[in-house]
Amino acid sequence: MTSVVENAKETPARKKPKAVLSDRARSERALGWRLAGPAFFVMLFVTLWPIGDAIWLSLFNYRLTDPAGRKFVWFQNYVTALSDPLFWQTFVTTFAIVIFTLIFELIFGFAIALVMNKIVVPRKTLRTIVLIPYAIITVVSAFSWRYAAEIDTGFFNHWLNWITVGGFPLDYNWFGGRWSSLFIISMSEIWKTTPFMSLLLLAGLAQVDSSMEEAAQVDGATWWQRLYKVVLPNMKAALMVAVLFRTLDAIRIYDNPYVMTGGANETMSLSMLVSNETITRVEIGMGSALSVILFIIVLIVAAIFVRGFKVDLTGGNK
Fold this sequence. Notes:
This protein is mainly alpha-helical. It has helices spanning about 5-10, 25-55, 75-80, 85-120, 125-130, 130-135, 140-150, 155-160, 180-205, 210-220, 225-235, 235-250, 255-260, 270-280, 285-310, and strands at about 60, 70, 165, 170, 310, 315. Strands 1-2 form a two-stranded antiparallel ribbon. Helix 9 (about 180-205) runs antiparallel to helix 12 (about 235-250), helix 10 (about 210-220) packs antiparallel against helix 11 (about 225-235) and helix 12 (about 235-250) packs antiparallel against helix 15.
Protein backbone atom coordinates (compact mmCIF):
# COMPACT_ATOMS: atom_id res chain seq x y z
CA MET A 1 0.00 0.00 0.00
CA THR A 2 1.56 3.24 -1.11
CA SER A 3 1.84 6.00 1.42
CA VAL A 4 0.51 9.49 1.05
CA VAL A 5 4.05 10.84 0.78
CA GLU A 6 4.89 8.44 -2.10
CA ASN A 7 1.70 9.41 -3.93
CA ALA A 8 2.57 13.04 -3.48
CA LYS A 9 6.02 12.43 -4.97
CA GLU A 10 4.56 10.61 -7.98
CA THR A 11 1.97 13.33 -8.66
CA PRO A 12 3.48 15.99 -10.93
CA ALA A 13 3.41 19.50 -9.56
CA ARG A 14 0.73 21.62 -11.14
CA LYS A 15 1.75 24.98 -12.42
CA LYS A 16 -0.15 27.89 -11.02
CA PRO A 17 -2.14 29.71 -13.68
CA LYS A 18 -0.80 33.13 -14.50
CA ALA A 19 -2.84 35.97 -13.11
CA VAL A 20 -4.62 37.92 -15.82
CA LEU A 21 -5.01 41.62 -15.17
CA SER A 22 -8.32 43.21 -15.92
CA ASP A 23 -8.63 46.35 -18.01
CA ARG A 24 -9.29 48.38 -14.88
CA ALA A 25 -6.17 47.00 -13.17
CA ARG A 26 -4.08 47.81 -16.24
CA SER A 27 -5.40 51.35 -16.39
CA GLU A 28 -4.78 51.86 -12.66
CA ARG A 29 -1.23 50.53 -13.01
CA ALA A 30 -0.60 52.82 -15.99
CA LEU A 31 -1.99 55.78 -14.04
CA GLY A 32 0.25 54.92 -11.10
CA TRP A 33 3.34 54.93 -13.33
CA ARG A 34 2.33 58.24 -14.91
CA LEU A 35 1.91 59.84 -11.49
CA ALA A 36 4.85 58.30 -9.63
CA GLY A 37 7.14 57.49 -12.56
CA PRO A 38 8.86 60.90 -12.90
CA ALA A 39 9.61 61.09 -9.16
CA PHE A 40 10.76 57.47 -9.17
CA PHE A 41 13.27 58.02 -11.97
CA VAL A 42 14.53 61.26 -10.41
CA MET A 43 15.10 59.47 -7.09
CA LEU A 44 16.73 56.57 -8.92
CA PHE A 45 19.12 58.94 -10.66
CA VAL A 46 19.88 60.86 -7.47
CA THR A 47 20.65 57.57 -5.71
CA LEU A 48 22.58 55.77 -8.42
CA TRP A 49 24.73 58.71 -9.50
CA PRO A 50 26.72 59.10 -6.23
CA ILE A 51 26.99 55.30 -5.87
CA GLY A 52 28.37 54.98 -9.39
CA ASP A 53 30.69 57.95 -8.86
CA ALA A 54 32.02 56.42 -5.63
CA ILE A 55 32.67 53.10 -7.40
CA TRP A 56 34.48 54.91 -10.21
CA LEU A 57 36.64 57.00 -7.83
CA SER A 58 37.51 53.89 -5.81
CA LEU A 59 39.45 52.61 -8.82
CA PHE A 60 41.92 55.50 -8.62
CA ASN A 61 44.84 56.38 -6.41
CA TYR A 62 43.52 59.90 -5.93
CA ARG A 63 44.50 62.41 -3.28
CA LEU A 64 42.57 65.67 -3.33
CA THR A 65 45.70 67.77 -2.65
CA ASP A 66 47.47 66.19 -5.63
CA PRO A 67 44.94 66.06 -8.50
CA ALA A 68 47.72 65.78 -11.08
CA GLY A 69 48.95 62.56 -9.49
CA ARG A 70 45.65 60.77 -10.02
CA LYS A 71 46.33 57.24 -11.24
CA PHE A 72 44.06 54.38 -12.30
CA VAL A 73 44.87 51.37 -10.07
CA TRP A 74 41.89 49.06 -10.68
CA PHE A 75 40.99 47.23 -7.42
CA GLN A 76 44.20 47.98 -5.53
CA ASN A 77 42.38 50.22 -3.03
CA TYR A 78 40.06 47.34 -2.11
CA VAL A 79 43.01 44.97 -1.65
CA THR A 80 44.80 47.52 0.51
CA ALA A 81 41.69 48.20 2.62
CA LEU A 82 40.82 44.54 3.19
CA SER A 83 44.43 43.67 4.09
CA ASP A 84 44.72 46.51 6.61
CA PRO A 85 44.37 45.39 10.26
CA LEU A 86 42.74 48.76 11.07
CA PHE A 87 39.83 47.92 8.77
CA TRP A 88 39.15 44.62 10.53
CA GLN A 89 39.54 46.27 13.92
CA THR A 90 36.88 48.83 13.03
CA PHE A 91 34.76 46.04 11.56
CA VAL A 92 34.85 44.08 14.84
CA THR A 93 34.19 47.25 16.84
CA THR A 94 31.21 48.22 14.70
CA PHE A 95 29.56 44.81 14.84
CA ALA A 96 30.24 44.45 18.56
CA ILE A 97 28.20 47.64 19.04
CA VAL A 98 25.56 46.43 16.57
CA ILE A 99 25.04 43.04 18.23
CA PHE A 100 25.07 44.36 21.81
CA THR A 101 22.71 47.25 21.13
CA LEU A 102 20.35 45.23 18.95
CA ILE A 103 19.84 42.52 21.57
CA PHE A 104 19.01 44.93 24.38
CA GLU A 105 16.98 47.30 22.21
CA LEU A 106 14.89 44.37 21.04
CA ILE A 107 14.29 43.15 24.60
CA PHE A 108 13.59 46.56 26.14
CA GLY A 109 11.67 47.79 23.09
CA PHE A 110 9.41 44.76 23.09
CA ALA A 111 8.77 45.10 26.83
CA ILE A 112 7.83 48.78 26.40
CA ALA A 113 5.64 47.91 23.41
CA LEU A 114 3.78 45.28 25.46
CA VAL A 115 3.11 47.85 28.20
CA MET A 116 1.94 50.51 25.74
CA ASN A 117 -0.27 47.96 24.00
CA LYS A 118 -2.08 47.07 27.24
CA ILE A 119 -2.45 50.56 28.70
CA VAL A 120 -5.55 52.30 27.35
CA VAL A 121 -6.20 55.55 29.22
CA PRO A 122 -2.94 57.59 29.07
CA ARG A 123 -1.74 55.92 25.86
CA LYS A 124 -0.93 59.13 23.92
CA THR A 125 0.87 60.66 26.89
CA LEU A 126 2.88 57.49 27.45
CA ARG A 127 3.96 57.32 23.81
CA THR A 128 5.04 60.96 23.92
CA ILE A 129 7.13 60.37 27.05
CA VAL A 130 8.74 57.26 25.56
CA LEU A 131 9.76 59.21 22.44
CA ILE A 132 11.67 61.91 24.36
CA PRO A 133 15.12 60.19 24.14
CA TYR A 134 14.65 59.53 20.43
CA ALA A 135 13.78 63.19 19.82
CA ILE A 136 17.09 64.39 21.26
CA ILE A 137 19.83 65.09 18.69
CA THR A 138 22.42 62.31 18.67
CA VAL A 139 25.36 64.66 19.23
CA VAL A 140 23.65 66.23 22.26
CA SER A 141 22.89 62.77 23.65
CA ALA A 142 26.50 61.69 23.10
CA PHE A 143 27.88 64.73 24.92
CA SER A 144 25.47 64.07 27.82
CA TRP A 145 26.62 60.47 28.19
CA ARG A 146 30.23 61.51 27.86
CA TYR A 147 29.96 64.00 30.73
CA ALA A 148 27.98 61.49 32.79
CA ALA A 149 30.81 58.95 32.48
CA GLU A 150 33.71 61.32 33.16
CA ILE A 151 36.01 59.97 35.87
CA ASP A 152 36.04 63.20 37.93
CA THR A 153 32.77 65.00 37.27
CA GLY A 154 30.46 62.27 35.97
CA PHE A 155 27.54 61.18 38.12
CA PHE A 156 28.16 57.52 37.21
CA ASN A 157 31.19 57.55 39.47
CA HIS A 158 29.33 59.72 41.96
CA TRP A 159 26.87 56.86 42.31
CA LEU A 160 29.72 54.38 42.57
CA ASN A 161 31.19 56.42 45.41
CA TRP A 162 28.25 55.28 47.52
CA ILE A 163 29.58 51.74 47.10
CA THR A 164 32.72 51.21 49.11
CA VAL A 165 34.94 48.16 49.38
CA GLY A 166 37.22 48.24 52.40
CA GLY A 167 36.38 51.88 52.98
CA PHE A 168 37.71 53.08 49.60
CA PRO A 169 35.52 54.81 47.02
CA LEU A 170 35.09 53.16 43.64
CA ASP A 171 36.06 55.51 40.80
CA TYR A 172 36.22 53.93 37.39
CA ASN A 173 37.72 55.40 34.23
CA TRP A 174 35.02 54.41 31.74
CA PHE A 175 36.98 55.76 28.78
CA GLY A 176 40.27 54.24 29.89
CA GLY A 177 39.81 50.94 28.06
CA ARG A 178 38.33 49.62 24.85
CA TRP A 179 35.44 47.54 26.17
CA SER A 180 34.39 49.97 28.89
CA SER A 181 34.33 52.74 26.27
CA LEU A 182 32.28 50.55 23.93
CA PHE A 183 29.93 49.80 26.81
CA ILE A 184 29.17 53.50 27.36
CA ILE A 185 28.82 54.09 23.62
CA SER A 186 26.43 51.14 23.35
CA MET A 187 24.41 52.23 26.37
CA SER A 188 23.92 55.69 24.86
CA GLU A 189 22.71 54.04 21.64
CA ILE A 190 20.33 51.78 23.56
CA TRP A 191 18.94 54.68 25.58
CA LYS A 192 18.29 56.82 22.52
CA THR A 193 16.97 54.31 19.95
CA THR A 194 14.95 51.89 22.09
CA PRO A 195 11.85 54.14 21.70
CA PHE A 196 12.14 53.78 17.92
CA MET A 197 12.26 50.01 18.28
CA SER A 198 9.31 49.98 20.69
CA LEU A 199 7.07 51.96 18.32
CA LEU A 200 7.83 49.63 15.42
CA LEU A 201 7.07 46.60 17.59
CA LEU A 202 3.92 48.29 18.91
CA ALA A 203 2.69 48.56 15.32
CA GLY A 204 3.31 44.82 14.97
CA LEU A 205 1.43 44.02 18.18
CA ALA A 206 -1.55 46.00 16.89
CA GLN A 207 -1.78 43.56 13.97
CA VAL A 208 -2.11 40.50 16.22
CA ASP A 209 -5.73 39.34 16.49
CA SER A 210 -6.74 39.42 20.15
CA SER A 211 -9.23 36.59 19.58
CA MET A 212 -6.33 34.25 18.80
CA GLU A 213 -4.71 35.05 22.14
CA GLU A 214 -8.01 34.56 23.94
CA ALA A 215 -8.53 31.20 22.23
CA ALA A 216 -5.03 30.08 23.24
CA GLN A 217 -5.67 31.20 26.81
CA VAL A 218 -8.93 29.24 26.91
CA ASP A 219 -7.00 26.18 25.70
CA GLY A 220 -4.72 26.52 28.73
CA ALA A 221 -1.67 28.13 27.10
CA THR A 222 0.60 30.04 29.46
CA TRP A 223 1.69 33.62 28.83
CA TRP A 224 5.03 32.46 27.42
CA GLN A 225 3.33 29.90 25.17
CA ARG A 226 0.92 32.54 23.84
CA LEU A 227 3.85 34.87 23.22
CA TYR A 228 5.93 32.25 21.40
CA LYS A 229 3.15 30.46 19.51
CA VAL A 230 0.68 33.25 18.76
CA VAL A 231 2.09 36.76 19.17
CA LEU A 232 5.59 36.51 17.69
CA PRO A 233 4.65 34.48 14.57
CA ASN A 234 1.91 36.98 13.71
CA MET A 235 4.19 40.01 14.03
CA LYS A 236 7.14 38.56 12.14
CA ALA A 237 6.96 41.28 9.48
CA ALA A 238 7.16 44.05 12.11
CA LEU A 239 10.03 42.25 13.84
CA MET A 240 11.94 42.01 10.58
CA VAL A 241 11.42 45.68 9.77
CA ALA A 242 12.43 46.77 13.28
CA VAL A 243 15.54 44.58 13.41
CA LEU A 244 16.55 45.40 9.84
CA PHE A 245 16.15 49.17 10.17
CA ARG A 246 17.92 49.28 13.49
CA THR A 247 20.79 47.04 12.36
CA LEU A 248 21.43 49.06 9.21
CA ASP A 249 21.33 52.27 11.24
CA ALA A 250 23.73 50.87 13.87
CA ILE A 251 26.24 49.74 11.23
CA ARG A 252 26.59 53.39 10.20
CA ILE A 253 27.25 54.58 13.76
CA TYR A 254 29.44 57.66 13.83
CA ASP A 255 28.31 60.37 16.26
CA ASN A 256 28.64 58.56 19.58
CA PRO A 257 32.18 57.14 19.19
CA TYR A 258 33.34 60.38 17.56
CA VAL A 259 32.06 62.57 20.42
CA MET A 260 32.95 60.25 23.31
CA THR A 261 36.35 58.86 22.35
CA GLY A 262 37.29 60.27 18.95
CA GLY A 263 38.18 56.71 17.95
CA ALA A 264 40.70 56.24 20.78
CA ASN A 265 41.11 52.91 22.58
CA GLU A 266 40.23 50.98 19.41
CA THR A 267 36.68 52.37 19.34
CA MET A 268 36.74 53.68 15.78
CA SER A 269 33.73 52.59 13.71
CA LEU A 270 33.63 51.86 9.98
CA SER A 271 31.95 55.20 9.28
CA MET A 272 34.69 57.01 11.21
CA LEU A 273 37.33 55.18 9.18
CA VAL A 274 35.65 56.28 5.93
CA SER A 275 35.44 59.86 7.22
CA ASN A 276 39.09 59.92 8.29
CA GLU A 277 40.29 58.67 4.91
CA THR A 278 38.02 60.91 2.84
CA ILE A 279 37.86 64.15 4.85
CA THR A 280 40.87 64.18 7.19
CA ARG A 281 43.46 62.58 4.90
CA VAL A 282 41.65 63.64 1.67
CA GLU A 283 42.37 60.21 0.17
CA ILE A 284 39.41 60.22 -2.21
CA GLY A 285 40.24 56.88 -3.84
CA MET A 286 40.72 54.94 -0.62
CA GLY A 287 37.78 56.67 1.06
CA SER A 288 35.53 55.81 -1.87
CA ALA A 289 36.67 52.17 -1.74
CA LEU A 290 35.88 51.99 1.98
CA SER A 291 32.46 53.56 1.44
CA VAL A 292 31.70 51.01 -1.28
CA ILE A 293 32.77 48.18 1.05
CA LEU A 294 30.51 49.58 3.77
CA PHE A 295 27.66 49.78 1.26
CA ILE A 296 28.22 46.13 0.26
CA ILE A 297 28.24 45.10 3.94
CA VAL A 298 24.89 46.84 4.43
CA LEU A 299 23.43 45.06 1.40
CA ILE A 300 24.67 41.67 2.63
CA VAL A 301 23.23 42.20 6.10
CA ALA A 302 19.89 43.32 4.64
CA ALA A 303 19.75 40.24 2.38
CA ILE A 304 20.55 37.93 5.31
CA PHE A 305 17.76 39.40 7.43
CA VAL A 306 15.18 39.31 4.64
CA ARG A 307 15.98 35.68 3.80
CA GLY A 308 16.33 34.70 7.46
CA PHE A 309 12.93 36.03 8.51
CA LYS A 310 11.27 34.63 5.37
CA VAL A 311 8.71 37.40 5.28
CA ASP A 312 6.85 38.61 2.23
CA LEU A 313 5.94 42.20 3.05
CA THR A 314 3.37 42.26 0.24
CA GLY A 315 1.52 39.13 1.18
CA GLY A 316 2.37 38.07 4.70
CA ASN A 317 4.66 35.32 5.91
CA LYS A 318 5.91 32.68 3.54
